[in-house]
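We both want to read discrete structure tokens more fluently, so let's practise on a single case. Would you supply a protein for us yourself, any chain you care to pick? Would you write everything just below, so we can both look at the same thing?
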Amino acid sequence: MGKLALVGKITHVPSMYLSELGGPREGTRRDAIDGHKEISRRCRELGVDTIVVFDTHWLVNANYHVNCGAHFKGNYTSNELPHFIANMPFECPGNQALGQLLAKVCTEYGVETLAHHATTLAPEYGTLVPMRYMNADQHFKAISVSALCTVHYLNDSARLGWAMRKAVEDHYDGTVAFLASGSLSHRFAQNGLAPEYGFKIWSPFLEQLDRRVVEMWEAGQWSEFCGMLPEYASKGHGEGFMHDTAMMLGALGWSEYDGKAEVITPYFGASGTGQINALFPVTPVTGRDIPAAQASAANGYTAVSSRL
């Protein structure tokens, strides 16, 4: 019925907002902003009506959650970096029906997910920053999905991504994009060193790790990447433990995915963290379903099998 037309891994660095304002940072994130605008152009070209964002700034301590309010409007100040994002206006239509459908199908697939359609809860900046540049004219509806998951298995996040694709393709009358909103390595610069690392990665190890991962994505080495994801998320300080990435790859077919990444905004450093805008072609995945999730805690991080 419906179509998942576009999948991406995107940055949401708050310095994008600073880049709009006067001062020493003006214009310094034009490449990232232009990447968002290009993703928006592609979504429009594909007929996307709703963008679903896997938001690594929405922290949850139980279950998975979908913010599918009817309409979002307000002024946002980041409690994490209030000197970067302060009083940023936002407005965007939501999609209550799709959000409830996503939660229903995820729960049916064994990942308990709650939809919040009658809520005063506003999205976090992992959703608001991309929507600022992709959806300034409110062309798209938006849904935010919790992806800063503190007590969750990566397996379940991958299963959630797959279930959301099934919900769209089997039950939704429309066209959707999924965006994993989060960094690669996410080790912020030590306090007092932030200005020095404004455009750098925190360590040579993390930069080389990230760059190798991008090469793997461009080469389509998904079996290898899925196998290393838990350790990469741990040792690479993955944002939100990279639950957004697990959701994205679950939707694409996990280790059986056969597409290759297209880098829209090349890898860059921001306050010590590694960032990118990249798209992943949505390829057919037929003849299989998700077996029972088998996840366990091991070696100090959350384990995920190399296959769904």
Summary: The first helix runs from residue 15 to 18.
